[in-house]
């Protein structure tokens, strides 16, 4: 089933689990994500960043994901991750993305609010889910890099009410990329924001966050958890291992190995999110 992300995430929030959102960089990763979701009977979101969209072509991404989703019995959504351009958000929507993130987190508060509201007003009539970010998740997500600025609770309330956004990414101490040590998460902040914001909350920078911290974040209100870095690393590591054998010349050999590695990792993260058998 090819669906919008809104319904599956609302259901997750009500059920006390989260929908895992996995970044795909190519067809094999998209296949791996859907195969893992099918095996675990879990709802799933496949997402692509703006640079990946440019590499992959948005209509081709949609065609591949829609084809995979139409053959799957679990709900699959296609989401645009971290897009800082209003125009690029519109390109993705026209290409058939069912969910988009407009990331105005580096803009002044009022500007982020104004542009997010504009994206919501444009996307909603088309049935497209909109995620926004307030505060700033640190680290590097493709071409978006930033210092971590924790989300302010009062601003979150005002922002969610005035924009009517479907999903809100908040900064609570996670970062994009790999962590040097164990991340220190501000769990109290998740709870405080959950209490004043009706929209489901999104945890970015899920790669490397220990299982217990992911589970605690979900119990306090996170309903979508993003994984990108670990998937990329697993795919690349698998390719490298196969290519140590210099007689290998068939891309199916090493890309197939990447697909298996990504699927195994997705299955682990599905269990972190508690979404097994929730499709
Ligand atoms: Zn992110």
Give the tags:
single chain; 279 residues; alpha/beta; TIM Barrel; 8-stranded parallel β-barrel; 3-stranded mixed sheet; 11 helices; binds zinc ion
Description:
The chain is of the alpha/beta class and 279 residues long. It has a single domain (5-273), classed as TIM Barrel (Alpha-Beta Barrel). The protein is 50% helix and 18% strand. The chain contains eleven helices and eleven strands. The chain has helices at residues 5-15, 27-40, 50-56, 58-71, 86-95, 109-123, 153-163, 187-196, 211-219, 229-243, 251-273, and strands at residues 19-23, 44-49, 76-83, 99-102, 129-134, 138-141, 144-146, 167-170, 175-176, 201-203, 222-227. The strands form two sheets. An eight-stranded parallel beta barrel has the order 1-2-3-4-5-8-10-11, surrounded by ten helices. A three-stranded mixed sheet has the order 7-6-9, with no helix packed on it. Helix 2 packs parallel to helix 4 (58-71) and helix 2 (27-40) packs across helix 11 (251-273). It is globular and about 60 Å long. The model has no long low-confidence stretch (mean pLDDT 95). Zinc ion binds next to loops.
